[in-house]
């Protein structure tokens, strides 16, 4: 976790690497419990950014998830995706990089070694109260050797003091 003190707002950035779909249920429960504890310790007025490899697919928003997901996500939601969506709802977060349309090559954050399979596992979350301040968001990874490892989450944010 990194805390940045700004002139207008303070920003807290939390980087995550979530358990894979094949991980033990207990490990997944521990991950989300510990992450919730960190989020709860963050001042509610801070701009909170939780970004990383969530090892899941959220898929695009449906009727029940429009308030936390956008229309521009790859794949079909799986169990880990349900966990992520439930976490965002419970903590009043929004998955920003599913709200902006980008070419598929900018959405893909994982490719199999043979290049046949690809998916979107990197997601960037912010508190819902700041969602309208995010003007663009996409998660990117860089291939290092045989695995995806370096995360670079560019997000364009416009924040101003509220009168």
Topology, element by element:
Elements: E1 2-4, E2 11-17, H1 25-40, E3 47-53, H2 79-90, E4 93-95, H3 104-107, E5 110-111, E6 118-119, E7 122-127, E8 134-137, E9 140-144, E10 147-152, E11 155-157
Parallel strand pairs: 2-3
Antiparallel strand pairs: 1-2, 3-7, 4-7, 5-6, 8-11, 9-10
Molecular structure report:
The structure is a single chain. Strand 1 (2-4) and strand 2 form a beta hairpin. The longest helix is centred in the N-terminal third of the chain and has 16 residues, at 25-40. The strands form four sheets. The chain has a five-stranded mixed β-sheet with strand order 1-2-3-7-4, covered by helices on one side. The chain has one domain: Deoxyribonuclease I, Chain A (4-Layer Sandwich), CATH 3.60.10.10. The mean pLDDT is 78. With 163 residues, it is an alpha+beta fold. It has helices at residues 25-40, 79-90, 104-107, and strands at 2-4, 11-17, 47-53, 93-95, 110-111, 118-119, 122-127, 134-137, 140-144, 147-152, 155-157.
The CATH architecture: 4-Layer Sandwich
Strand order of the largest sheet: 1-2-3-7-4
Mean pLDDT, all residues: 78
Total number of helices: 3
The major pleated sheet works out as:
5 strands, mixed
Counting DSSP E segments of at least 2 residues, the number of strands comes to: 11
Distance between the termini: 29 Å
* Bulk shape: globular
Low-confidence segments, given as residue ranges, are none
Helical residue percent?
Answer: 10-25%
Radius of gyration: 15 Å
Number of domains: 1
Order of helices and strands: EEHEHEHEEEEEEE
Strand content: 25-35%
Q: Structural class, from helix and strand content? A: alpha+beta
Write the CATH fold name.
Deoxyribonuclease I, Chain A
Protein name: Craniofacial development protein 2
